[in-house]
Amino acid sequence: MEAIGRPRGGTRAVLAVLFVGAFAMGSAELLVMGMLDLISADLAVSIPAAGVLVTAFALGMAFGGPLLALVTAHLDRRAVLVGAVAAFALLNLMPVLVADYTLFLVARAGVGATEGLFVAAALTALEGVVPRDRAGRAMGVVITGFAAASALGLPLSSLLGREFGWRASFVGLAVIGVGVMLAAMLVLPPVPASSASRTARAQLRHAFAPRVLAVLALCCLVFAGVQSALTYLVPYLGDVTGVTGPLVVGVLFAFGVATTVGSAAGSRFADTHAARALQWGTIGLTVSLLAMFLFGGQVVITVLAIVGVGLFAMGMAPAMQSRVMNLAGPGAALAASLPASASNAGDAVGALLGGSAIGHAGLAAAVFAGAVVAATAVVAAIATGRLRPEAPATEAARRTAEPLAARS
Question: Whole domain around residue 82: which residue ranges?
Answer without folding.
Answer: 11-193
